[in-house]
Every structure is written in structure tokens, then in C-alpha cells.
Amino acid sequence: MNAGHKLRLKWLGIDTYQEAVIYMRRDCEVCRSEGFEAQSRVRVARNGVEIVATLNVIDSDLLAPHQASLSSAAWRQLDGREGDTIRVRPLPPLESLIALRSKIYGHRLNDEQMYCIIEDVARGRYPNIYLAAFVAACAGGRLDADETVSLTRAMVNVGQRLDWGSAPVVDKHCVGGLPGNRTTPIVVAIVTAAGLIMPKTSSRAITSPAGTADTMETLAPVALDLPAIRRVVGKEGGCIVWGGAVNLSPADDILIRVERPMDLDSEGQLVASVLSKKLAAGSSHALIDIPVGYTAKIRSQHAATMLKTLLEYVAGNLGLAIQVVFTDGSQPVGRGVGPALEARDILAVLRNEADAPVDLRERSLTLAGTLLEFCGTAAIGTGVAHARRLLDSGQAWAKFVAIANAQGGLRTPPVAPHTHPVCAVKAGRVTAIDNRLVSRAAKLAGAPRAASAGINLHVMVDSPVEIGMPLFTVHAETPGELEYALSYLDIHPRIVKVEER
């Protein structure tokens, strides 16, 4: 077997997000002898660690013929150092491409074919173009229920699976599409204060202005490895961490990398993403929240019922007990939309502050109470009252502080240096708030990449409004991002719909 050609690493500092890329001169020994061309997939090894990377070819003196460079993501994966020796060799043909092509042409995939694809995805063998092809081939209802079971099972099996040695181990997930709906940290604090085990691994945002991991990261470290997660859960009964930092359903985070710019979150992949993370984290019971509203991700009760059926079918086939609840998705929850702004809402609720958003508080209590009843910690009909006692007494806040400190320390969310209020141009009553437009404006302001950016809402549906009254405030980290969001709002002025009295 070819041991590979040797090259010396040079740091260029090129950010390709999470994609591993290697840069070599066209006239270097490796490219000449192997016949490598731009976009070739190659294996790159250093000190016994090997990754798969996409080749980008350089035709300048940026690199010497004996040098190579790596994207920031690849550099981290190999723990590279300037001047290190790396070995580069070809990547053998991928057998899973046969299955991928079959899916592109509309054929069903069996367990073996799905596992073959997902294993190559998880091992970093698929470039973005293959990943995009797979995501697109599975979107639009092109995965049936049994294929979704196969996809979920494969996503669990290619990574690690935690075992906590006791039951129940609980989890909670919202399918998304509702700005500001950051109930998870509050629910974790309440149910762990009640004595349940809740090792919560969350994703970063896919198509929204913030995910739970993005928001929690403004309050405490979330990129914990498995030993650290075990330590935190062993000490406090729960955690709120980023799942991408550990090898739990690793293919999911890779697929999310492609789904985000494509703005895709198809039903089958959504179910596989949600349930694979629960199973990999060792959960025995999971509560799934489906907000339903005209401008939410799930727009109709019919669509919500179909998704519930698929979730229950897949979970039942894989041995996970779930309870699905439908919630109001007609408007954003809380005031903040964006990581730091949502974090402030969470703190206000947990601290029982007088001006804490009531809708976020009550929704969190409902979900926590349902979970307590589902797992037998509270009798049927008493869960919400039990959850309320834990929150009102300060026990939930104390538990949240303990979890945050165990993860590395509670910190204060950042504040955006640039803000601009958007005010009412007529008096009346708020009749609608468009979830999608709120999310889009918050993202244009910089969220979730800019943690302090987003939208802070000052009104809800049915709120009375006077001329000149602030409806919401845009937060941004740079003047350009603020102007970008405001330009969008000029084009879409009915983000908050006000009807005259």
C-alpha cells in the first residue's frame, strides 16, 4: 500500500467553515505523480491521525513545492503545527456512491445501503457536493417511514452511544420554526432539580437565528468532550452542551452544515436528526414539542399530525419512548430572538424577575410538567404545579447555576453595541407577528454568528399600540449588519401587523 508522499505544513489561515481542505501547488511532487486535480479527495495523515480532505490547487508562490496548507477545520482535526510533516495519498473509490446515485434516481434505500452512506458521511469521506446531493435526494418527502428508520439507526450506529446505567434518562426537543422559543435550558433546570437525569445535547442553528447550543454558549461553555459531560451529569444530573463536540450521531452535524446554506430541513431528515441524538445520548424518554402556526415551520394541524405519526413510528422501531405535544406557533415566544437576547429571557425566567416574559415562563412550565408526568416523577395532572414550585422556590435557578458552573462557569451574555428601534406608524392593536420575517431580520442583523445580534420584541399579538411606540429593536455588532437588517425591514414593513382601532 502507498504510504503517501511527504509535505511540510504551512499555516495560511483559510476558514472553510467545517470542511476539510488541503492546499498544494500544482507542480508539487504529489500532484504530478498522483495526477491529482482540483477537487480531488485525498487522505491526509499526521502522527497516526488521518482525515479526508478536498484538494484546492495553487498556481502561485504562496506555497513552495514541498509545502502544503490546510483549512482551519482540517488543521484542528490533525492538531497541525507549522513545519509538521504530513503524508498525502489517494482516497479509494467510495462504494456508497452506488447507493447515493440510486437514491437520486428515486429508489428506496435499505438498512445496509443507508448505513454505507452515513458511515462515509460521518468519516468525512463526502465532499460538500456529495452531501448536498444526498440532502436534496432525501428532501421533499423522498424518504418513506422505513427509510427514515434506517437513516436514524445508521446515524446512531456510526457514532458513540452513551449508557447512564439507570432509567429514566429524559430529553426534550422542539422541532423549531418559532423565534425565541428557548424553553430547553429552563426545562433542564426544573426537571434535574426534581431529580431526573437529563443529559441535553443540542445542535447549533440550522435555519434559525439561534439554536439551544448557540444561546447556552453565551451563558456557559458548551463544547464539552464525553468525559466532561459524564462528569457534569454525574455531579448535577444534567447538562446543556453542543452535540457537535462529541461523537454522538456525528453524521447529523455534517449534514446540518449543508442543510443550513440550502435552507432545508426536510421531514425525514428532521426526524432522524432529532431521534438519533436522543438515542445516542442514552435517553429512554423524550418529549417532542411541535409548534403549529401559519408562519411557523409546521403550518397546519394536518402537517403536525403527520410529523407526530412519523416520530412515533421511528421511535417505536428503535426502542425510544416519546410523547409528542402540539403548542401554539402563531407568534414568537419571549422577547429576544438571537443567542444573547434569548439568554437574557432565560435568566429572567429562572431568576423569577418581575418583568420575565410570561409566555416563555408558562410554556416552559407546561413542558417541564408534562415531562415530569411522562416519567412518573409527578402524578398525572400535578406536573405543572410541581414544576412551578421548583421554579418559584429558586431550586431551578440554583440547579441551572450549578450546571453552568460544572460546565466551566456561568457568564454574562454579551450586549450589542448597535441598536435601532422600529416604531409604530399608526395606533391600533397588534394582530399578527410573522415568525419567518422576524427570524430573517434577526439573521440579517448577524445572528447566530454574532451572539449579541438579533431582534428584541416589545409587543405581542393583541398588544395595544400608539403612534411612535417601539414595536421591536434591532441589535447588531456592526453598523453594516444593522443597516442590512433595516434595509430588509424597509422592504418588509409588516413584520408586526397593526390594525387600526
From TrEMBL:
Keywords: Glycosyltransferase, Transferase. It holds the Pfam family Glycos_trans_3N. InterPro entries: Glycosyl_Trfase_fam3, Glycosyl_Trfase_fam3_N_dom, Glycosyl_Trfase_fam3_N_dom_sf, Nuc_phospho_transferase, PYNP-like_C_sf, PYNP_C, Pyrmidine_PPase_CS, Thym_Pase_Put. One of its GO terms (cellular component) is cytosol. One of its GO terms (molecular function) is thymidine phosphorylase activity. Its EC number is 2.4.2.4. Residues 429-496 form the Pyrimidine nucleoside phosphorylase C-terminal domain. GO terms for biological process: pyrimidine nucleobase metabolic process; pyrimidine nucleoside metabolic process. It catalyses: thymidine + phosphate = 2-deoxy-alpha-D-ribose 1-phosphate + thymine. Belongs to the thymidine/pyrimidine-nucleoside phosphorylase family. Type 2 subfamily. NCBIfam families: ARCH_P_rylase, PRK04350.1. This is Putative thymidine phosphorylase. It comes from Pseudogulbenkiania subflava DSM 22618.
